[in-house]
Specification:
A 7-stranded mixed sheet has the order 3-2-1-4-5-7-6, sandwiched between helices. The chain is built from 5 helices and 7 strands, in the order ααββββαβαββα. α1 packs across α2. The protein is an alpha/beta fold and 236 residues long.
Length: 236
């Protein structure tokens, strides 16, 4: 039945997948621009199986890493006791052995699912000796299950302020530009911003959220159109 629906009605199904797939492909591309620059200890926080959803592993992006670790928390797509997997509750006090343990902390679309987001943000920063890379949703359809809820969306101004409050300076930031998909923000910050001035690729980021807000409106319009199509075609 699923195959028949996709065959008979390719447009809405493609459109649904596109909203979530394109931002992931884009953020993977952004990470690939920077990952080779890191030579120390890397951790992917709340990584689940470390999959990039394009058939690869994030550990393979960091070709010059000295060590690579992942953390997880119990629940759906959570901690499973794999070799080298670190148990980490981002809303609890950070264990002393994880403070300043890594040169880079990487996290993809987790903070929107954590109610005590400020504590989680601070813990991610406290784990890093140098840099943090975050991928966060600016505009995205709400999604949750029995293991995690969906609480927050982020603006560039909020991310910069959160990093500043934790002793970091944003050194690279970008956004995807897919009008019929979720909008992600890709942000790198460092305790030592002077180190990265000449190393990072140049990026032209929108200094105000005006364009982002415009895209979120367009995104919502597309969602409404899609919902109407789905309801008419499938009698929902």
């Amino acid at each position: 039945m699923r195959y028949r629906i996709r065959s008979l009605y390719p447009f809405p199904m493609f459109f649904t997948d596109r909203r979530f797939r394109l931002p992931r492909i884009w953020s993977n591309g952004e990470l690939n621009k920077l990952a080779y620059l890191f030579h120390g200890d890397i951790v992917n926080i709340s990584a689940w199986k470390d999959e990039d959803k394009q058939g690869g592993k994030y550990r393979d992006y960091f070709v010059n890493a000295k060590t690579y670790s992942i953390t997880n928390y119990p629940g759906v797509r959570g901690y499973a006791g794999r070799d080298g997997e670190i148990f980490l509750d981002l809303e609890a006090d950070l264990p002393d052995e994880l403070k300043l343990k890594f040169d880079l902390c990487y996290n993809h679309t987790t903070l929107e699912h954590i109610f005590d987001m400020k504590t989680a943000f601070a813990s991610i920063c406290d784990m890093s000796r140098d840099a943090v890379i975050l991928v966060l949703p600016f505009s995205q359809q709400q999604h949750e299950n029995e293991s995690y809820k969906d609480y927050w969306r982020f603006t560039p101004t909020a991310i910069r302020a959160l990093f500043m409050a934790n002793g970091f300076t944003v050194v690279y930031e970008s956004q995807n530009d897919h009008r019929n998909a979720a909008i992600y923000l890709f942000v790198m910050a460092s305790r030592h911003p002077e180190k990265w001035v000449e190393l990072l690729p140049k990026n032209e980021f929108i200094e105000t959220a005006g364009k982002l807000i415009g895209h979120s409106v367009i995104h919502r319009i597309f969602e409404l159109i899609q919902d109407k199509i789905m309801r008419r075609w499938f009698d929902l």
